[in-house]
Design goal:
Elements lengths: L2 H12 L5 H13 L1 H19 L7 H16 L6 H18 L1 H25 L16 E10 L6 E8 L11 H13 L3 H16 L9 H16 L3 H11 L7 H13 L3 H10 L7 H13 L3 H17 L1
Antiparallel strand pairs: 1-2
Helix pairs in contact: 1-2, 1-3, 2-3, 7-8, 8-9, 8-10, 9-10, 9-11, 10-12, 11-12, 12-14, 13-14
């Protein structure tokens, strides 16, 4: 609601003539408009002041004298033009309607019926939307979202616009950047564990074969970071084992890979994953942090096989020293 309309409605509200359907929009406008709210409060204060003063009735002599002067002034007016007479008759007709509620109600009812009939006629003769296609084959992809709904007026015909998730297939070499990017996504956005398993297995095989997985570019770091993330957080032990196999060539040169393998040895819940982590530590068993973890596991681990394997790895480290 604009401020100009709100100010007009405020005046009608003060006199109790504002329609009910405009009351709520006026209140909502006053809540957000500081100027109109200030003017509304001023009107309320003015009405309160006026209510305190008694209303004085004019004397009969004053009324009679005023009527005489009004009649004389009307007699002195020049003849009205056609346009003035038209507007004058229109205003008198409106005044007559205000004094005849039954006639006003009748005219309002006639107008409502006429408008309803016109709307039905237009809806009946308006162009009809095509019949919707019944989906009988869902193999084209799942429905992603609904983008629009159109209903024919005075009809049960509805047109619904929607978008599908259409499955696609890409074929290429493991050296293809697009294939690698999809494999990286497969480790995080796979629909089932088998897809994650296959994605990690292929990335790990690329790393073991040193196909651009041993360099320092962004793509290489992303592959190794994905394998580290799978080793740390994937719930499937087979996936973690494959991630370990792919990280094995880089445990000596990449400190983040070494830390991930040590965390797997300390905290992984699968014994096979922990045994493979121990076997991977041979190239770095002389490292102080690696020996510290092996000593902790060999003395405190609840699994005897893990304790023994850690002790044997420590013995190898002592021989090297």
């Amino acid at each position: 609601m604009k401020c100009e309309i709100a100010q007009q409605n405020m005046i009608l509200a003060q006199y109790g003539e504002l329609p009910d359907e405009l009351q709520l929009p006026l209140e909502q406008h006053l809540e957000v408009c500081e100027d109109c709210r200030r003017e509304w409060k001023a009107l309320l204060a003015l009405n309160e002041e006026l209510a305190l003063s008694p209303m004085v009735e004019p004397s009969p002599n004053l009324l009679a004298a005023s009527r005489m002067r009004l009649d004389e002034a009307l007699d002195d007016l020049p003849p009205r033009s056609v346009l003035q007479r038209f507007f004058g008759n229109a205003f008198r007709w409106l005044g007559f309607l205000q004094g005849a509620p039954a006639l006003a109600t009748l005219l309002l009812g006639v107008g409502f019926l006429g408008g309803n009939f016109l709307a039905r006629y237009q809806a009946l003769h308006s162009p009809q939307l095509p019949r919707p296609v019944i989906m009988s084959n869902m193999a084209d992809g799942e429905i992603a979202n609904v983008s629009g709904i159109v209903q024919t007026p005075s009809s049960e015909l509805v047109q619904v616009k929607y978008n599908r998730l259409v499955p696609e297939t890409v074929q290429g070499s493991l050296d293809d950047p697009q294939i690698r990017q999809l494999l990286l996504l497969g480790t995080r956005l796979a629909t089932n564990a088998d897809v994650r398993d296959d994605s990690v297995a292929l990335l790990a095989s690329e790393c073991r074969a040193s196909h651009d997985c041993g360099g320092g570019n962004d793509a290489t770091r992303e592959i190794r970071a994905t394998l580290v993330s799978s080793l740390r957080s994937d719930k499937n032990p087979n996936v973690r084992l494959k991630a370990l196999a792919g990280l094995q060539p880089y445990i000596a040169q990449d400190e983040q890979v070494r830390d991930a393998v040590l965390d797997a040895l300390l905290y992984d819940t699968n014994a096979e994953v922990r045994e493979q982590a121990i076997s991977m530590l041979t190239p770095v068993e002389a490292d102080s942090s690696v020996r510290q973890v092996l000593r902790t596991v060999s003395s405190q681990d609840a699994n005897p096989a893990i304790r023994n394997a850690s002790f044997q790895e420590l013995q190898g480290s002592a021989d090297i020293q």
